[in-house]
Write a structure and sequence with these properties.
Blueprint lengths: L2 H21 L6 E3 L3 E3 L7 E2 L5 E8 L2 E8 L7 E4 L1 E2 L4 E2 L1 E2 L4 E5 L3 E5 L5 E4 L7 E6 L5 E5 L4 E4 L7 E2 L4 E3 L3 E7 L2 E11 L5 E6 L6 E2 L5 E2 L12 E6 L5 E5 L4 E3 L13 E7 L5 E7 L8 E6 L20 E4 L5 E4 L4 E3 L9 E3 L13 H4 E7 L1 E2 L6 E5 L4 H9 L6 E5 L2 E5 L7 E2 L6 E7 L13 E2 L10 H28 L15 E3 L1 H7 L6 E5 L2 E8 L2 E8 L6 H15 L9 E7 L2 E7 L6 H6 L6 H21 L14 E3 L5 E3 L5 H5 L29 H16 L20 H11 L3 H4 L4 H5 L1 H14 L10 H9 L19
Parallel strand pairs: 41-45
Antiparallel strand pairs: 1-13, 2-10, 3-4, 4-5, 5-6, 5-9, 7-8, 10-11, 11-12, 13-14, 14-15, 16-26, 17-23, 18-19, 19-20, 20-21, 20-22, 23-24, 24-25, 26-27, 27-28, 29-30, 31-32, 33-39, 33-40, 34-38, 35-37, 36-37, 36-39, 42-43, 43-44, 44-46, 45-46, 47-48
Helix pairs in contact: 8-10, 8-15, 10-14
Bound molecules: 2-acetamido-2-deoxy-beta-D-glucopyranose (7 copies).
The site of one 2-acetamido-2-deoxy-beta-D-glucopyranose has 5 residues, from loops.
Length: 814
C-alpha cells in the first residue's frame, strides 16, 4: 500500500468512526460505558445538555490535555484538566491517545500504544455511566446512580458555581499563561478552617507558610464553631467560607455585585500571577470578554514574609497595574535571570564583589541610581540601620560598603540592604528613596521603563516634592481605586444623569429625587452622626449609604466651602477610607453618597459581641493607622479628622477597617453654634490641646488614635460610663490612666483579661501596641509620634521605646 492510499484509508476510517463516537453520548449529557474519544484535532467532545461545557481533548502545543472547557466561549478556556498531583504536572497525551469510560476504572486514558497514562480512581463500585453536567462537572456514576468520581472533586486552578473546596482542598496556579504545570501559588483550605493563599517554592513545591498573600481568618482555635469547614461557590455566584456554625465569610468584596447566574458564565480562578479572581462572561455575547467581579488579594505586591521572594522573583520590583495585577520589573543595573520569565528573579548585571575591596575606592567603582516609591521592606533584607542620616550620607554609606546592594532612606533612617532582595514593590504610598548600587566600570545601568527613575542623580538635582506626591497620588488612585471604579462604572451605566464636579474627582451628582428613591423615602436608618442621619439605599446594583447633612445652607460661603470639601474628599482614595461616591446639592439639601460597608462600626465589633481575635484586632489597628497616615501626609490636601473614635470606623465585608466621616469637620467649624465650646470631637477621645490655648494640628488625631488603640487592645471603652456589676474597680474606670498604671507595674495581662489567650501569647506585639498607644496619648503633642512613625511602630520596623507617663500633670483622684 502506498502512502497516499494509507492516508486516505485512515481518513475514511476516522470519518466512519465519527458517527459512532456520537452515539456514545445522548442529548442529556449522558456517556455510556464503552464510549471513547480520540485525541485528534477535530474530534467531537462530550457536551453537557445545554452545550455550555464540553469534556474531551484540548490541544496543547503538540500534545493533548483531557479537559473540560466552556464550549461556547471563544478560546474555550479550560476549567479542569487531568493532573498528576504528585508531581504537579498536567497529563499531556500524544496525538492518537484515547480516553474511554470503562466499568472497572471509570475514565481511562491510554496512549496510542495502549499504555495507561491516567485514570479516574473509582474504588468502590463499577461505573454504569458518565454525565457531562451543565454545571461543568463530569460525573461518573455507579449502578445505583451514586457518584463514583467527579471532576469537581479534583480541581486544578478553577472552581465553578456549585463547586466546593473541602478541608485540605487546594487550587494550584499554573506556571505561566502557557504552561499548566504547578506554579508559584497555592490556595488551600487548611485544617484549621483558614483559607490561605501561599507562595510555593519551585521546583521543590515547598509551601511557604509565612507571609500568606491572603487569609480569610476563618480559623478560631478558641471557639471551633467559628472555624471554616468548606469553601463554597454557590449557585448565585457567591464565594464564601462556610463556618461550622453556619455563618458565612465572603471571600469576594462585592457581596451585592455577583452577576445573575442565568445570564453569565462564572468561574473563580487562581491565576498564574497569584491573583484569585471571580470572572464572569455574558452568555451569548462574544464581544465583551471576561470581566472581574472581585479579586484577592487586594494587593499581591504588599506581602511581608521572611522566606520566599514575594509575588515577583528575587531582586525584582512588583507593581500593581490598574486591574490589580502584579507586573514585575528589574531595578536598573539588573536583568532577568531567565529572559522568558517576566515574573522571575533578577540578577545584577555585574556582581558586587567584596574581593575587589581595597584595590579601588568604592566610589570609583560604584555609583547609585535613585528610585522613588520603591522598597524592599522587612528585616530579612536589612543588615544595617543608620540613624539619623541624610541623603548624602546614606548614599555614601552604601557606596563604600561592598556588601550593600541598596540603601533605603526614609525620614532620617538609612537601611542598608543585601542581595538577594525579597518582596520588592513599587508603591505610591511609600515616600522613601532607594539608592540602587551598580558597578561603574561597565556601562551605566540599563534604564528601564520605570516612570520615576531619577536620571539627574549626578547633578544632585532634587525633584520637587510636589511632583513626587503628584505621581504617587496618581498611582494610589489607580491601585486602590480599581475595585471602586469597577463598582462605579457598573452603576454609572444605569444612571441617566452623570455630572462631574471639578476635573479631579469622579463624584456623581444626584438629584434629591434620585436619592429619595434610592433610599425608599429615607426609610432605613443606618446611624446618626455629628453631621446628620445616614440611610441605606440602593443604586443600580450596589448598596450605598446616604448621609443627609442636618445643617441647612447658611450662606454662599458655606456653600463654597461645601464644594471645596467635597472636592477634597472626592480625591481621597485609600483602602482604609470609606469612599465618597457622589453627592446632592439641591436648594437647602446637602446629601453625601458613600459606599456601603456591611459589617457595621468598630464600636459594635469591639464592644458588643465576643472579642474579635487578637490578630484581627492588630490588623484593624494597622489599617486605621494607615488610613490616618494617608489623610495626614499622603493625600493632596492634608485632612485632619478631628473625630477619630470607634463609631467612625466601619468594617467592610472582610472586616477591613475603613475610616469614615473625614474631611467634614471644617464644614462644622464654620458653624459653631452646635458645639458651644468650639471643640470638635467626642468626649474621651479629644486631645488636651483643645482645652488649652494651643494650636490644633494633626497630632489631635494621633491622640484620639492612641485612645482608640487602647480600646482595641482591651476591647473596652476608654470611659466606662456606668460601672457594670463586675467592674467596680475605681482604678480602672479610665482606660488611659489605668493602661499606664498597668504598664508601669508590669501587670499588662490585667488589661486584656483572662480569656484573651492569643494576646497573652503574643506578648511582644501586645507590648509594642500598648507602648505605641501610650506614646500617642502623651499630653504634650510634641511627644506624640506622627502617624507615619506610628505605622512603623505598629509594624515593628522601628523600635518602640518606653513611653513616659502620658499625663504627668493630671492627678487621679482615688
Ligand atoms: C447536574 O448536577 C446537579 C447538581 O448535582 C444535579 O441536580 C443535576 O441533576 C445534574 N444534571 C444531570 C444532567 O445529571
Ligand atoms: C512546563 O514547565 C515545566 C517545569 O519547568 C517543564 O518541565 C515542562 O516541560 C513545561 N511544559 C511545557 C509544555 O512547556
Ligand atoms: C463560640 O462562638 C459562638 C458565636 O459564633 C458563641 O455563640 C458561642 O457561645 C461561642 N462558644 C464558646 C465556647 O465561646
Ligand atoms: C448564595 O449565597 C448568598 C450569600 O451567602 C445567598 O444570599 C444566596 O441565597 C445563596 N444562593 C443559593 C442559591 O444558595
Ligand atoms: C454585547 O455586549 C456589547 C457591550 O456590552 C453590546 O454593545 C452588544 O449589544 C451586546 N450584543 C448582544 C448580542 O447582546
Ligand atoms: C494588567 O496586567 C495584566 C497582566 O499583565 C494585563 O492582562 C492587563 O491588561 C493589565 N491591565 C491594565 C489595566 O493595564
Ligand atoms: C459581617 O458580614 C457578614 C457577611 O455579610 C455577615 O454574615 C455578618 O453577620 C456580619 N457581621 C456583623 C457583625 O455585622
Amino acid at each position: 500500500m502506498d502512502f497516499a492510499t494509507s492516508t486516505s484509508t485512515t481518513f475514511l476510517f476516522f470519518l466512519l468512526l465519527l458517527p459512532f463516537s456520537a452515539v456514545g453520548q445522548a442529548d442529556d449529557g449522558r456517556v455510556e460505558v464503552g464510549s471513547s474519544l480520540t485525541a485528534t484535532n477535530d474530534g467531537s467532545p462530550w457536551r453537557s445538555p445545554s452545550g455550555d461545557f464540553a469534556f474531551g481533548f484540548h490541544q496543547h502545543a503538540d500534545r493533548f490535555l483531557v479537559s473540560i472547557w466552556f464550549d461556547k466561549v471563544p478560546a474555550q478556556p479550560l476549567v479542569w484538566y487531568a493532573f498528576d498531583y504528585a508531581v504537579g504536572n498536567p497529563i499531556l497525551a500524544p496525538a492518537g491517545s484515547k480516553i474511554e469510560l470503562t466499568a472497572e476504572n471509570g475514565l481511562v486514558l491510554r496512549d496510542p500504544r495502549g499504555q495507561q497514562l491516567w485514570r479516574s480512581d473509582i474504588a468502590t463500585d463499577e461505573a454504569a455511566y458518565g454525565v457531562m453536567n451543565d454545571t461543568g462537572n463530569f460525573v461518573v456514576r455507579g449502578r445505583n446512580s451514586d457518584v463514583l468520581w467527579q471532576s469537581f472533586d479534583h480541581p486544578t486552578d478553577t472552581l465553578l458555581p456549585t463547586q466546593t473546596l473541602e478541608i485540605n482542598g487546594k487550587l494550584f496556579s499554573r506556571l505561566n499563561e502557557n504552561n499548566f504545570s504547578q506554579g508559584r501559588f497555592q490556595l488551600s483550605l487548611q485544617n484549621d478552617g483558614n483559607l490561605v493563599l501561599n507562595m510555593v517554592n519551585l521546583p521543590t513545591k515547598f509551601v511557604y507558610e509565612d507571609g500568606p498573600f491572603y487569609t480569610s481568618r476563618t480559623a478560631d482555635p478558641a471557639n471551633e464553631s467559628n472555624s471554616g469547614v468548606r469553601l463554597i461557590f454557590n449557585e448565585s455566584g457567591q464565594v464564601y467560607v462556610l463556618r461550622k456554625n453556619g455563618l458565612r465569610y465572603n471571600v469576594g468584596t462585592g457581596a451585592t455585585l455577583a452577576p445573575p447566574a442565568a445570564d453569565f458564565y462564572q468561574r473563580v480562578t487562581l491565576d498564574f500571577d497569584g491573583v484569585f479572581s471571580h470572572y464572569y462572561y455574558p452568555k451569548g455575547n462574544t464581544s465583551v470578554g471576561w470581566s472581574t467581579v472581585w479579586s484577592q488579594p487586594e494587593n499581591i505586591c504588599s506581602r511581608m514574609g521572611e522566606r520566599g521572594s514575594g509575588a515577583c522573583g528575587y531582586n525584582s520590583i512588583c507593581k500593581l497595574n490598574d486591574s490589580r495585577r502584579p507586573t514585575c520589573s528589574c531595578p536598573p543595573g539588573f536583568s532577568l535571570l531567565d529572559p522568558d520569565d517576566k515574573y522571575g528573579s533578577c540578577k545584577p548585571d555585574v556582581e558586587l564583589d567584596c574581593r575587589e575591596d581595597g584595590r579601588m575606592a568604592m566610589e570609583d567603582m560604584y555609583d547609585t541610581t535613585v528610585l522613588l516609591n520603591t522598597d524592599w521592606p522587612g528585616a530579612i533584607n536589612d543588615y544595617d540601620l543608620l540613624q539619623p542620616y541624610g541623603e548624602q550620607d546614606c548614599r555614601a554609606a552604601c557606596l563604600r560598603d561592598c556588601m550593600c546592594a541598596v540603601a533605603i532612606l526614609k525620614d532620617d533612617s538609612c537601611w542598608k540592604k543585601k542581595l538577594p532582595l525579597t518582596n520588592g514593590r513599587e508603591n505610591g504610598g511609600f515616600s522613601g528613596k532607594a539608592f540602587i548600587k551598580f558597578t561603574k566600570r561597565d556601562r551605566t545601568p540599563a534604564s528601564l521603563n520605570l516612570p520615576n527613575v531619577d536620571e539627574e542623580k549626578n547633578k544632585g538635582t532634587l525633584i520637587t516634592i510636589s511632583t513626587l506626591l503628584g505621581t504617587s497620588m496618581f498611582v494610589n488612585f489607580a491601585l486602590v481605586g480599581a475595585f471602586c471604579l469597577g463598582f462605579l462604572s457598573i452603576y454609572q451605566k444605569k444612571l441617566p444623569k452623570v455630572e462631574q464636579v471639578g476635573l479631579e474627582t469622579n463624584l456623581q451628582v444626584f438629584t434629591h429625587e434620585e436619592l429619595a428613591e434610592a433610599t425608599n423615602g429615607f426609610k432605613e436608618e443606618l446611624g446618626r452622626g455629628a453631621f446628620g442621619i445616614v440611610y441605606k439605599g440602593t443604586i443600580g446594583m450596589g448598596t450605598v449609604a446616604v448621609k443627609k447633612l442636618d445643617r441647612a445652607v447658611r450662606d454662599g460661603n458655606w456653600d463654597k466651602e461645601f464644594k471645596t470639601e467635597i472636592n477634597v474628599i472626592g480625591q481621597t482614595h485609600h483602602k482604609n477610607l470609606v469612599r465618597l461616591l457622589g453627592f446632592c446639592q439641591e436648594k437647602e439639601q446637602r446629601l453625601l453618597v458613600y459606599e456601603f460597608l456591611c459589617n457595621g462600626t468598630l464600636a459594635d465589633y469591639l464592644f458588643r459581641n465576643a472579642k474579635p481575635s487578637w490578630n484581627q484586632r492588630t490588623q484593624i489597628a494597622k489599617s486605621i493607622a494607615s488610613g490616618l497616615l494617608y489623610l495626614h501626609e499622603e493625600c493632596s490636601t492634608q485632612i485632619i479628622h478631628c473625630d477619630i473614635k470607634p463609631e467612625n470606623i466601619l468594617l467592610d465585608v472582610n472586616y477591613n477597617a475603613r475610616i469614615s466621616d473625614f474631611g467634614l469637620s471644617k464644614l462644622l467649624m464654620m458653624d459653631q453654634t452646635q458645639t458651644k465650646t468650639g471643640i470638635r470631637g467626642t468626649k474621651g477621645y479629644v486631645a488636651p490641646e483643645w482645652f488649652r490655648n494651643m494650636p490644633v494640628t494633626a497630632k489631635v488625631d494621633v491622640y484620639s488614635f492612641g485612645v482608640l488603640l487602647l480600646e482595641i487592645i482591651c476591647c473596652r471603652r476608654n470611659v466606662v460610663v456606668e460601672e457594670s456589676a463586675g467592674c467596680t474597680d475605681g482604678d480602672s474606670s479610665i482606660l488611659t490612666y489605668w493602661a499606664y498604671d498597668c504598664f508601669q507595674e508590669g501587670t499588662i495581662d490585667d488589661l486584656i483579661g483572662d480569656d484573651d489567650m492569643e494576646a497573652r501569647h503574643d506578648r511582644k506585639s501586645l507590648e509594642r501596641l500598648l507602648m505605641t498607644a501610650l506614646w500617642c496619648i502623651q499630653e504634650d503633642p510634641c511627644l506624640r509620634p506622627t502617624m507615619r512613625k506610628v505605622t512603623q511602630m505598629l509594624e515593628g520596623v522601628v523600635q518602640v521605646t518606653i513611653p513616659p507617663n502620658p499625663s504627668p500633670f493630671t492627678i487621679t483622684v482615688g
